[in-house]
Amino acid sequence: MIRSLWSASTGMAAQQLQLDVISNNLANVNTNGFKKGRVDFQDLIYQTLRPSGTPQAQGVQLPLGEQIGLGTRAVAVQKLFNTGEFKHTGNPLDMAIEGQGFFQILTPSGEIAYTRDGSFKTDSQGRLVTSDGYLLQPEITLPPESGDIVVGVDGTVSVVFPGQIEAQQLGQIQLVRFPNPAGLANLGHNLFQRTGSSGEPITGIPGQDGLGAIASGILEMSNVQVVEEMVNMIVAQRAYEINSKAVQSADEMLNIANNLRR
Predict the structure, then answer these.
(1) Domain range holding 163?
(2) Do 165 and 112 reside in the same domain of the chain?
């Protein structure tokens, strides 16, 4: 009976974590470039009461054994990097990556972080920055007298100066991909950080070597599907409820045993 209490309690804890991840997904349904999380579970160790193949008599073995599981646990919260919906903004500094890849961002600590959020702005010096003011790498600066801005699918940034016809190239955006993007660590602020499991970054020109092309005037939205998350929330709630019923039933049976009278 004590076994059932602990096994059911692990199920309740697992579904609480599942609800935490679902809540974070729904909270970021309108976050640019957000990638939803998914909890992966696995069963715990088993207590073997009688192993399979135990000899029962001369030449006779039991075909089945007795094993009792001890619950479940979460082993990973995986980021799913499928592409989100695209939204047309018309702003040339809004950029979406059509395929694999991340923009490179210089953090205040001097380290490089990575993002799918392409909603860039300009700072007081004309440099392309994120909404938090972090610099895009390689650094690109727009002259104050520049006119129309053109961002090519290969990441080239050009401007047309007043009185001129041809655009002048100012620089080129480079993207990065990873052998295992799910291994990246979340930093918040729509940023990811390289880890040992993500592999080394592979830098290249957009549209080449497996990297996606850049679409200017478009933003990638969150890949969270609200209906899917709502269904997952209902499943988690019912699973939590049924595990709590198992705890209650085990407690009632223990109470009956405790109140036995001769």
Answers:
(1) 86-220
(2) yes
